[in-house]
Structure formats: structure tokens, C-alpha cells
Design brief:
seven-stranded parallel sheet; flat; 30 strands; alpha/beta
């Protein structure tokens, strides 16, 4: 009824997709009108358009740019005490930067028709000619030196229209059609373009990439893997390079290298989501501006945007390193206890199922008899195959559901009866597992310590201690012992819970595989092995213990960010995919990204048939095998989609028994992926594949396949996510090709068992369906899609909760990274230091003024700042707090300035002597500083120190002290947050919200950390000076090497979809990955340089090689 009503309203008023396309369609006419004007101009005139566009952008923004320049001059001229003036100027600069971004969007919107027309005309000229020539520029000559398809002839450059892209020769044969122009407009507007498979998303991306590169703020094109990054960069590069734009790919270069920095300086930069995110984290661990590689986060365009922003969103990016005692754990010691519990549960439930069958035969089917035993079996081991098979029989699922409803009523007051015989319970829908009292008794049996798993009552025990007459030393000792016992047992209970999850909820060849002696996670969305990724919160270590492989040591987090918070930093974000509509709500709620469905260029002719529903898995797989044979006999290629490695291997064995030739593509066979996919479209070929054959896989049809009906998609199970099913269907029927898709489903499948089979089961029971019979109806398919929606909502909840945790840290991360950037570049560091001084003085003065302690104030400022306020006791007592704070602050600033002037005067004479004697050979000087306790050697640039009259010497000291302090305190704070998250999760046992506890405690920790950080920085800055006996003993500083991050691991932490798994996992060991090598022209050193200069290659573009 509701569906009919919605359909009627849509017909009357139109749906969202139609309205969206209608609003954008006028752009197409404007673009094509500009495109027609370009047909008669020369190649040189076409290329000149880019410079013209850039000039128009520059002119439009010149007023704001001039205001920023004036404000920066104003800051430089401000006096040292004019903090408010400096801060106001910097705030105004930040406001102008935002205004500039908005005005840039205005001018790009005005340029859009002309810019898109230029790209389309360039594509047409490349498609219609074997080569395209123009007057050569210096940039063309540089390209010609390394690119075989670009050559110089006299004063002309010749672009061949056939070139190499990721090892494959390709000839440009594409020109943008109208729906692709619509897609380009959507991407430029910062929205998501949903385009079907084969609609040319890569070509569409050239339009907004070219337009936004005119703003010269950088365009980042993000892909899901390094192969696609390299392929798309090399595929599209000549179109951009023809117009003088620089194109590069992050995956050509090692992380944190000078070459990677140059890649970010290109107009258009391709790379994977991981590399962009990890570069951001590494940049915020750099110790000099030269080590940072990224520029402004301005515009990012994400390919397969739903995969990146939805599927990968629950796996934070983490850079970690070794931690003390990280290899100490109890997993191997506790494993036998959990094995004992799991075995005991299995034995009991097998007996209970047998007893239930007997009771049913005797007619004792009430919820307190057979129904109780069936529900108890479901609570204990819901994935038990005998139980699943029995519940598939007529009436059994309804009997179990009736018992479930009975025991769940009245706030589950009777649930203890169900759980009384179980050792642990599993709530499969909410992905939670919990030991019962019986299970705890079993694992503590024969233990030396009866309180082995009993958490002490810390609050009550401390209260009892306070009432005793023990001396303070003994009391403190008892308290320390109590807290130590609490910590050990808390960690032990956590390890037990993770081991229990590993044994009862995670299956080999389903959630993970064993490869090279390691546990490797299989991505449920793509079916691919996720190298380097680990389950969070110790779960991965528990699985390693279960599988008897090496349990990797724990590590400490040095830097972390979720993809949600990383991509939300961009001024403008857009994306393209074939399957975003089902997640439109989440994309809007988290990223404020609207999904626009782009119509296809040709109507889709694929036949998407209703699902076939069987009672049991055995019936379903027999029907799948028969369907495969029938389709092969018709001469059609068949792609069989599975949801796990285990099922793909099961089907393979079935076909081997029937002696049917086929190929298998799963996480264990990923090396053969290219060969298997290449053959998948040939007549009669059979390919069994996990989700690896979904996203990004292009199956081209062989000769005669279209005539026989096209590619046949056979799905063996509905995935939890509708997007994955749509991706599988999308392999057939591209660009109007024929094809078909059909899913085979059983009531025993995970999705149906958990969310969808009650109504379907009742229908099959009501109409007396026997084993082997099948239901096929649109109502059933819609029921299954409703089940998928439930799972999607649940997964969204998990991702949103992860984001809520990271949002807490993100607020802190923004503060710390901003201060770190100020320290790194030094531009706004003086403001931060002055604020830190003012905050410290405010706290100290307020505290001592309240107690009217004049002597205490003098001693504290002398002790901490090596500075004594110039005021009498009567001044102290008679002055208001605010005035007192301002007076002491001004005196402190002048004292600090005098000390810095003294340092500059003493050091500058030495610097000038060194410059006079060895200036040609010496670049940097080591300047010794000491506060009486610590000794620091600061590297100072010789030329810069003399040019700034010594200011660079004190500035370098400020930068070094601030950076080192921030890094030490932030690293320690992250470790405390890791511990806090685990402690907060334990709050759920006390019926408290872990997230609320985490928010409150993390705020307090951060406040304490900031206060300590400010105090340490200003104390060292005030006390630090050049020792008198060292002022003449300054040595040359060797050039500083780039920070060595080889001992740090960059990893993705997989948030297992299990309750309580919000913590972060130790990262994997760094994996040595071969850096992709570009295929470039090989030129002999004594050959003529291909750039056309007439010089030998070794004297021209080969100088640095």
C-alpha cells in the first residue's frame, strides 16, 4: 500500500533523480555550444585557453590576495607585546582564506562551460588523429625526454595518441557524451555521481580535474588501490599535459621522500586513500618544513567513493611503533581455558538438540520444553550447522521463535532459565558474546586463585582503607596493590573475552585466512586480502593464538585518524561510483555529500530476475550446479558470485565432482586475478569468484557471447550489503550489452537466518513446500532487500560510533597539529608562545593572589621562569588580579626579549667570523643551549642568521623546544587515550555509557596535558641560554637526514563488527612493498637528448641521472 502511494506521488511530482538531472541539463547545452566554437581554432590556440583561464582566475582573486599580503606585513611590523593585534591579523587572514575559496568557486562556475568544452575538444582531436602537434614549450621538451609518445620536431611537439598505461598499450578513442558532461558537473559541484558500470567514470573525471586545476590549489584523485591510481594517471595524463598541466601519482615514489613532495606539487595528483591519509599523519610527525609533502587539502575526487567513505570508514589509519613490554600477553596461557569452555558448550548443545528432537516427537513442543532447548541452542551456538539444518524443517523455526518471544517478554525476567545451562551466550544480531556464571566457574576450576577472574571493588576497598588506622605509607602501599590487581584482572578479562570471540564468532576462510604463517583479514566487501590490517583491541592476537601462529607484539599509537575526519578536511569533496544510492543517507549525514543518479548512455538490457529461495543450503547448491551446467550448454560465460573463500572452494569441489572445467578467484588466488578475469567473458567459461570479481573488474565479452545472451551472473547468497550485490550484477549488461543475473538463496544463509526468514519460512510451511521445491516471487526479493537494509543500518551505527570516538580525539588533534604547524614554520609561533606565557601567569597569579602570598608568587616565577616580578608587596596587595596579570605578563615578555637579544649579540659575532672564514663551505652551525639541567644543540642556518641579525638563532631554539615538547606530550597522551578507551569499555559492565565516560575523561586528560605542555615549553625557553664557556665553541652542523620512519608501522585497524570492539589494535609489521616503476623512454647518455635541444642527453635532461 505504502509502496503504491510513493509510486503514485513520484509519477505526479517526479522523483529526486529526475529533478537532479533536470537541474543540471542546461549546462550540457552551454558546454556543447562552447565546444562547437572550438572546432575551427588551431592546436596552439586551444592550448592557449588554459593560460587565459588561469589569468582570469588570478584577476578575480587579486583583491583578496593583496589583502592577505598587507596583513602579513602588518604582523611583521607589530611590536612583541601586541599579541591581540597579531592574533586579530591572523584571524582575519584565516577568514580571507575561506572567502578566497568561495570566490574561487564563483569564477570556476563561470568558466565551467568553456573549460569543459576545451577538454572535450582535446579528447576529440586525440580520438580522430594518430598524432596531435603544436608549438613546443619548455614543459613539452621536459616531457619528451622521458615519454616515448611525445617527441620534438624542430620547434613543434608531437603527441602520439597511442601510449602505455600501466603496462598496457592503449589508443585514445573516447569523446565525452552528454551524460558524462552531466557527471562532470556533479563532481565539480562537490557531489557524488552514481554512474553504472561501463559508463566511463575515468573519462568523466577529466572534466572537473581540469577545471579545478585552474585554481592552482591542487586536485587529488583518490582510488581504492595502487594499480588503479597508476592506470588512471597514465591513461589521462596526456590530455592534461597537452595543456601544460603537471600530472603525477603518489604510488611511483616511496613515502616521505622528496619525490613524493614533488608529486603533491603537481596540478593533478593520483593516489590511494591510504597514501593520502598516511602522508597527512607523517607530515604531522615531520621535524622540518622540508620533510612535509602535502599542500592544502583543497579538492578531492574519490573513485569508488562508497568503498572508501563507507566500507573503509570503520578502519582507522594508524602509525605506530614499538612499545615497552609489547610482547607480554596472556593469550597462549588462557587459550586452553577457552578451548575447554567452547568444547563443553558444543557437547552440551549437541545433547540438547537431540533431546529437543525427542520431545518434539513426543508432542512436547511448548516454550518450556522443546522450544526452550531450541532457543538455548540458538543462544549458545547460532552458527551450528546441525541446528541451522533442523530449524529449516517445517515448523521448527516458528517453534523456536515462539520460545524466544516468551523469554524476551517482561524485560527478559525469565532469560536466566535459558542461560542457566550455557557456558557463554551469543547475541548474533548485536555481535556480542558474554561468559555466564557457569562458564566462569569452569575456567576458574582447578585454579590456585579463587579470585582469578573476580574484579576487585576499588571504590569500596579504598573507602575501607581510609577508615583504618594504618600509617599513610602503608595505606598508599595497599592502594597501589589494589590498583595493580585491578589492572591485571581487567586486562585478563579483556583477553578472555577476545579469545572467546575468536573461537566462537570468527571462522577461518570466512572472516580471515592463514597465509605465510599469518592471520590475514579478508575484506567482506571486496573479497580481497587486506595486507597489514589487523582486528582491533587485541582480537587479532586472540585469533593468532587460536590458530597457533606467532602472536604479534602490541605497539603504541604515534598518530591516527579515521578516513571520515581526514576527507572532511578538504574544502571540496566529490566522488563517483556505481552503487552509492543505497547509502545516500549516511553519505549526507557524515560528509554532507548529495548523491545524484546519472542516467545511462544506452538503456540497460540486463535481465535481473527474482531470487530463487530454497529451504536448505544443500538444495540451493545443487540447484546452482544445475544452473551453471545449463548456462554453459547455451554457450554463455558464467560468473558465480560467492560471499566467502570457503563457499567458493565448496562450489569448486562440487563442479570438480561433475568434471566441469572452471576457474576460482578468491583471496588465495589473487595472483592469477588478471588472467582469470581476462578469460571470464569467453563462451562457456565458468568463473567462481568472491566479491573480488565485483568492484573495478571489467569483464569483456568474447566472440559470439552477445548472440547467445551475454554474461550470466549467478549469485549463491545475498550479501549483507545491497551495494555488493549491485556490484556483482553490474559485471553484466555494460553499455547496453545483453546479460542476466539471479541470486540463489536458502533459509539457512546468514542474512536470511538473522533478519529475513521468519515470514518466508511461514509462507513455505503454510503452503507445504517440500525439500527441493523453490519459491520465486518479487515479494520474496523485496523481503530480502528489507533484511539487507536492517544490516546496513546496524553497520552504519557501528561506523557512526567509531566516528564519535574519533571526533573526541579529532578536536584535540586539530589543536595539537595546528600548534605543531605553527612551531614547524615559525610564522605564528610567537603568538602561541605569548599565549602560553599569559595562560601560565594567569593561573599562577590567580592562585597566589587568592592566598595573598606575595613571597610565594616571587619564588614560583623565579623557579619556573628565572624571572622576578618588579613590584612591591603593597603593589601586589593593592592591585586587582587582571591588572596584576597584565603587569607581570608585560614584565615577563620584556625579560624574555632582553635574554634573546643577549643571545643574538653573543652568537652573531661568532657567526660572522665563521661566515668570513668558511662561509663558502659551511651551511649550518650547531649552537649549544642549556637551562642548567638539559643541554641542547640547535642547528641554525648560517646565512639566515646573519641576514636576520641573529633572530633566526632564537627562533630556531623556540621551534626546536616547542616541537620536541609537543611530540613527547602528544605521544604520551595518545597512549593514555588507548588505555582510557579500554577502561571505558569496561564501564559497560557497570551499566554506564563507555562513550560518555571516554568524552569526559579524555577532556580532563587533554586539559592536563595542555597545561603541562605550556608550562614545560615556557620554562625551557626562559631558562635556556648559551653557556658562557661555549659561546665561542660552535661547530658546523651536518645536514640533517630526513626522519627515519622505518621502525614505525603504517596500518589499517579493522574494527571487528563485535560489541565492545571500539579500541585500536596494535599495528602490523611494516611490509616491504615494491615501489611501482613507470615505463619511461630509455635514452643512452651519449645519445641526442629527445627534448630537441641538440645537446647530448648527459649534458641536458640526463644530468641528474
Amino acid at each position: 500500500m505504502i509502496n503504491s502511494l510513493v509510486s503514485g506521488i513520484s509519477k505526479l511530482f517526479g522523483n529526486k533523480a529526475d529533478k537532479d538531472v533536470k537541474d543540471i541539463t542546461p549546462y550540457v547545452g552551454k558546454i556543447n555550444a562552447e565546444f562547437d566554437k572550438l572546432a575551427g581554432i588551431t592546436n596552439d590556440q586551444l592550448r592557449a585557453k588554459t593560460a587565459e583561464f588561469k589569468q582570469r582566475v588570478s584577476d578575480y582573486l587579486s583583491e583578496i590576495d593583496q589583502q592577505v599580503v598587507e596583513l602579513k606585513k602588518e604582523v611583521e611590523a607589530a611590536d612583541i607585546t601586541e599579541i591581540d593585534k597579531k592574533e586579530d591579523a591572523y584571524d582575519r587572514i584565516d577568514e580571507l582564506e575561506k572567502e578566497r575559496d568561495e570566490k574561487l568557486e564563483e569564477i570556476l562556475e563561470a568558466l565551467l562551460p568553456e573549460a569543459f568544452a576545451v577538454v572535450k575538444e582535446t579528447a576529440r582531436r586525440f580520438a580522430e588523429n594518430d598524432s596531435v602537434s603544436a608549438t613546443a614549450t619548455d614543459y613539452d621538451r621536459d616531457l619528451a625526454a622521458t615519454k616515448e609518445h611525445i617527441s620534438i620536431l624542430g620547434n613543434d611537439v608531437i603527441y602520439q595518441t597511442t601510449w602505455d598505461a600501466a603496462g598496457q598499450e592503449m589508443t585514445w578513442n573516447m569523446v565525452h557524451y552528454d551524460v558524462q558532461l552531466i557527471g562532470g558537473v556533479v563532481l565539480h559541484q562537490g557531489k557524488i555521481a552514481e554512474m553504472q558500470t561501463g559508463e566511463g567514470k575515468t573519462l568523466v573525471s577529466t572534466l572537473p580535474a581540469y577545471l579545478n586545476s585552474l585554481g592552482q590549489r591542487g586536485v587529488h584523485i583518490v582510488t581504492v588501490n595502487d594499480y588503479l591510481a597508476r592506470r588512471d594517471a597514465e591513461w589521462n595524463a596526456p590530455i592534461f599535459q597537452f595543456h601544460g598541466l603537471k600530472v603525477d601519482c603518489l604510488d611511483y615514489y616511496k613515502p616521505h621522500s622528496p619525490e613524493r613532495k614533488q608529486a603533491y606539487l603537481a596540478d593533478i595528483t593520483y593516489g590511494t586513500n591510504n597514501e593520502f591519509g598516511f602522508d597527512y599523519l607523517r607530515d604531522n610527525m615531520a621535524h622540518s618544513p622540508d620533510e612535509q609533502v602535502q599542500q592544502k587539502h583543497h579538492y578531492a575526487m574519490i573513485d569508488e567513493v562508497d568503498s572508501v567513505l563507507i566500507d573503509d570508514a570503520r578502519t582507522p589509519l594508524i602509525i605506530s611503533g614499538p612499545t615497552p613490554k609489547g610482547d607480554i600477553h596472556e593469550f597462549n596461557e588462557l587459550k586452553p581455558k577457552i578451548q575447554k569452555v567452547v568444547d563443553a558448550q558444543k557437547r552440551y548443545l549437541n545433547t540438547a538438540l537431540t533431546d529437543a528432537k525427542k520431545l518434539i516427537k513426543e508432542g512436547k513442543t511448548s516454550e518450556k520444553e522443546a522450544g526452550l532447548l531450541l532457543f538455548r541452542g540458538y543462544r549458545g551456538l547460532p552458527k551450528s550447522k546441525p541446528l541451522i539444518k533442523f530449524l529449516g524443517e517445517q515448523g521448527m523455526k516458528a517453534l523456536m521463535t515462539k520460545a524466544e518471544n516468551y523469554y524476551l517478554q517482561d524485560q527478559q525476567k525469565e532469560m536466566h532459565i535459558v542461560d542457566s545451562e550455557l557456558f557463554f551466550t551469543i547475541d548474533e544480531k548485536n555481535n556480542q558474546i558474554e561468559l555466564t556464571d557457569k562458564g566462569i566457574d569452569l575456567i576458574t576450576d582447578n585454579s590456585d586463585d579463587a579470585q582469578f577472574f573476580v574484579m576487585p571493588d576499588v571504590g569500596g576497598s579504598i573507602a575501607d582503607l581510609e577508615k583504618t588506622d594504618l600509617d599513610p605509607t602503608e595505606k598508599q602501599k595497599r592502594k597501589d596493590e589494589l590498583m595493580r590487581d585491578f589492572s591485571v584482572k581487567s586486562e585478563r578479562i579483556h583477553s578472555i573475552n577476545q579469545l572467546l570471540k575468536a573461537y566462537a564468532m570468527f571462522e577461518k576462510d570466512v572472516e580471515y585466512i592463514l597465509q605465510d604463517g599469518k592471520v590475514k583479514i579478508v575484506d567482506e566487501q571486496t573479497g580481497r586480502v587486506m595486507d597489514g590490517r589487523r582486528y582491533s583491541d587485541g582480537l587479532h592476537q586472540a585469533i593468532e593464538a587460536k590458530e597457533n601462529v606467532k602472536v604479534e607484539a602490541a605497539t603504541q599509537t604515534f598518530a591516527t585518524v579515521t578516513l571520515q575526519n581526514f576527507f572532511r578536511m578538504y574544502h571540496k569533496l566529490s566522488g563517483m561510483t556505481g552503487t552509492a544510492e543505497t547509502e545516500a543517507g549516511e553519505l549526507w549525514e557524515i560528509y554532507k555529500l548529495d548523491v545524484i543518479v546519472i542516467p545511462t548512455n544506452r538503456p540497460i538490457s540486463r535481465d535481473d530476475r527474482d531470487d530463487l529461495v530454497y529451504k536448505t543450503v544443500r538444495e540451493k547448491f545443487n540447484a546452482v550446479a544445475e544452473e551453471i551446467i545449463r548456462l554453459q550448454e547455451e554457450g554463455r560465460p558464467v560468473l558465480v558470485g560467492t560471499t566467502s573463500v570457503e563457499i567458493s572452494e565448496l562450489l569448486s569441489r562440487m563442479l570438480n565432482m561433475r568434471k566441469i572445467k572452471h576457474s576460482v578467484l578468491n583471496a588465495k588466488q589473487h595472483q592469477r586475478e588478471a588472467d582469470i578475469v581476462a578469460a571470464a567473458g569467453q563462451p562457456g567459461s565458468i568463473t567462481i569468484a568472491t566479491n573480488m570479481a565485483g568492484r573495478g573488474t571489467d569483464i569483456k565479452l568474447g566472440k559470439g557471447v552477445k548472440e547467445s545472451g551475454g554474461l550470466a551472473i549467478v549469485g549463491t547468497e545475498r550479501h549483507d550489503s545491497r551495494r555488493v550485490d549491485r556490484q556483482l550484477r553490474g559485471r553484466a549488461g555494460r553499455q547496453g550489452d545483453p546479460g542476466s543475473s539471479q541470486f540463489f538463496v536458502s533459509l539457512e544463509d546468514n542474512l536470511m537466518r538473522l533478519f529475513g526468514s521468519d515470514r518466508v519460512s511461514k509462507v513455505m510451511d503454510k503452503f507445504g513446500y517440500e525439500e527441493g521445491e523453490v519459491i520465486q516471487h518479487s515479494m520474496i526479493s523485496k523481503t530480502i532487500e528489507r533484511s539487507q537494509k536492517k544490516v546496513e543500518q546496524n553497520n552504519f551505527g557501528i561506523r557512526k560510533r567509531l566516528l564519535e570516538y574519533d571526533d573526541v580525539m579529532n578536536k584535540q588533534r586539530v589543536v595539537i597539529y595546528s600548534r605543531r604547524k605553527n612551531a614547524l614554520y615559525g610564522e605564528r609561533l610567537s603568538v602561541d608562545i605569548n599565549n602560553a606565557i599569559y595562560d601560565w601567569i594567569e593561573d599562577v597569579v590567580s592562585s597566589y593572589k587568592e592566598n595573598n602570598d606575595y613571597e610565594g608568587l616571587k619564588m614560583e616565577t623565579l623557579r619556573h621562569l628565572a624571572f622576578e616580578p618588579n613590584m612591591s608587596q603593597s603593589d601586589f596587595e593593592g592591585t586587582k588580579v587582571d591588572s596584576l596579570i597584565q603587569t607581570i605578563f608585560e614584565q615577563a615578555i620584556h625579560s624574555y626579549d632582553r635574554k634573546n637579544k643577549d643571545i643574538r649579540e653573543r652568537a652573531l659575532s661568532v657567526f660572522r667570523n665563521i661566515h668570513k672564514d668558511r662561509g663558502d663551505n659551511v651551511k649550518n652551525i650547531l649552537v649549544p643551549f642549556s637551562d642548567g639541567k638539559k643541554s641542547l644543540n640547535i642547528s641554525v642556518n648560517l646565512e639566515k642568521a646573519i641576514a636576520t641579525e641573529g633572530r633566526e638563532i632564537t627562533n630556531a631554539f623556540e621551534r626546536f623546544v616547542t616541537l620536541a615538547s609537543i611530540d613527547d606530550h602528544w605521544k604520551e597522551h595518545l597512549r593514555e587515550l588507548d588505555d582510557l578507551k579500554q577502561t571505558a569499555n569496561n564501564a559497560s559492565y557497570e551499566q554506564k555509557d563507555p562513550l560518555l565516560i571516554y568524552k569526559l575523561e579524555s577532556f580532563n586528560l587533554f586539559q592536563t596535558m595542555i597545561n603541562t605542555l605550556n608550562s614545560d615549553i615556557i620554562s625551557l625557553l626562559f631558562k635556556g641560554n648559551i653557556p658562557i664557556d661555549s659561546s665561542d665553541d660552535m661547530k658546523e652542523a651536518k645536514e640533517r637526514k630526513r626522519a627515519d620512519m622505518s621502525k614505525m608501522s603504517a596500518s589499517r585497524t579493522a574494527e571487528a563488527l563485535v560489541g565492545g570492539g571500539d579500541g585500536q589494535a596494535p599495528a602490523a609489521e611494516p611490509k616491504q612493498v615494491a615501489v611501482p616503476v613507470r615505463s619511461e623512454q630509455k635514452v643512452g647518455r651519449n645519445d641526442d637528448c629527445p627534448c630537441g635541444s641538440g645537446k647530448k642527453y648527459k649534458k641536458c635532461h640526463g644530468k641528474e641521472s
